[in-house]
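Support request from a user on the community tier.

User writes: "When I paste my structure tokens into the form, the page sometimes reloads and wipes my input. The last time it worked, I copied everything first. Here is what I submitted, just in case something in the input itself triggers the reload:"
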């Protein structure tokens, strides 16, 4: 599953190596066509915002991720399902730089090699991650939480004198509306419901305008109504952002999904519409237990 961009990259690398005859700036290390990314720029001309190939990671000899290959198109909302321990969270850990794979390729767009970046750099490049537990600042208002999400991007000095400019104010108002919290702007985050806290945290990620959002079990613990509103929210975000959503709640997946990827034992077991994967014998088998 090698896309054109890799062939093209390999060609360019070969041409460059021929020219410099091994005397490269990186001390002869084959850095290839990849480069260190700059926040704000992602090259999606090859139709992929995220690209994983042959990724493996072992913990004490146990292969949690096993030659995993997967890609996501810009603006896509990809759902990831799979039994407990399939490697879903570990995959997100790898994409966000929390865990380093033992082998494989992880690209953001066609040029940014994520394995050359650490966690804060990957966040700054435009990959936002939502963990399962909400981590909002309970003592601050909804407004202050969203404002803080912009500040955390800056150094301590500049955040002390931080004031929202008019574009940021507009962005904040837009995000408040998107996350259904416009009427709760002055409420203390600690007084919000579990679902509202989850939306606020998604709002904090949206303040950074991420290109790719990774959401791990976003509707766990939500009421049915909150789950339905979260589905609406994700459908609004689709297109403007690329989303990777891990969930066990199949009715939620049914509402939001286009393509569903089933992970099992650290690699892709099946991929297709939810109906397709649910009809797949191998998928039925892993869900029923072997
Ligand atoms: N840091 C670690 N050290 C050792 N083993 C780990 C580590 N992280 C994950 N694992 C193991 O890797 C496997 C995959 O775990 P992971 O959390 O990615 O699964 P998951 O698909 O997210 O499962 P769930 O649906 O239960 O959240 C599990 O067997 C887990 O115990
Ligand atoms: Mg998990």
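"...and here is what came back when it finally went through:"
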């Amino acid at each position: 599953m090698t896309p054109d961009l890799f062939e093209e990259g390999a060609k360019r690398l070969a041409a460059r190596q021929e020219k410099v005859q091994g005397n490269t700036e990186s001390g002869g290390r084959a850095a290839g066509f990849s480069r260190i990314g700059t926040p704000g720029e992602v090259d999606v001309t090859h139709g992929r915002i995220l690209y994983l190939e042959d990724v493996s990671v072992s913990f004490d000899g146990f292969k949690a991720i096993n030659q995993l290959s997967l890609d996501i198109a810009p603006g896509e909302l990809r759902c990831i399902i799979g039994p407990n321990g399939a490697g879903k969270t570990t995959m997100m850990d790898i994409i966000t730089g929390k865990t380093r794979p033992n082998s494989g390729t992880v690209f953001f767009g066609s040029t940014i090699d994520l394995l050359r970046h650490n966690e804060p750099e990957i966040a700054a490049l435009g990959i936002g991650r939502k963990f399962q537990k909400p981590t909002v600042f309970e003592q601050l208002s909804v407004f202050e939480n969203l404002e803080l999400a912009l500040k955390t991007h800056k150094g301590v000095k500049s955040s002390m004198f931080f004031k929202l400019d008019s574009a940021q104010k507009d962005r904040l108002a837009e995000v408040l509306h998107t996350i259904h919290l416009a009427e709760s702007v002055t409420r203390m985050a600690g007084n919000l419901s579990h679902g509202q806290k989850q939306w606020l945290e998604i709002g904090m990620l949206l303040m950074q305008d991420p290109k790719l959002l990774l959401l791990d079990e976003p509707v766990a613990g939500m009421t049915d109504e909150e789950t339905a509103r979260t589905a609406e929210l994700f459908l609004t975000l689709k297109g403007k952002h690329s989303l990777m959503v891990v969930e066990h709640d199949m009715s939620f997946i049914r509402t939001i999904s286009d393509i569903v990827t089933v992970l099992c034992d650290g690699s892709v077991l099946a991929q297709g519409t939810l109906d397709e994967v649910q009809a797949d014998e191998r998928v039925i088998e892993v869900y029923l237990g072997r």
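Agent notes: The reload is a front-end session timeout and is unrelated to the input. The beta strands are 50-59, 62-72, 77-81, 103-108, 112-113, 127-130, 212-216, 242-246, 260-264, 267-272. The mean pLDDT is 86. Escalated to web team.
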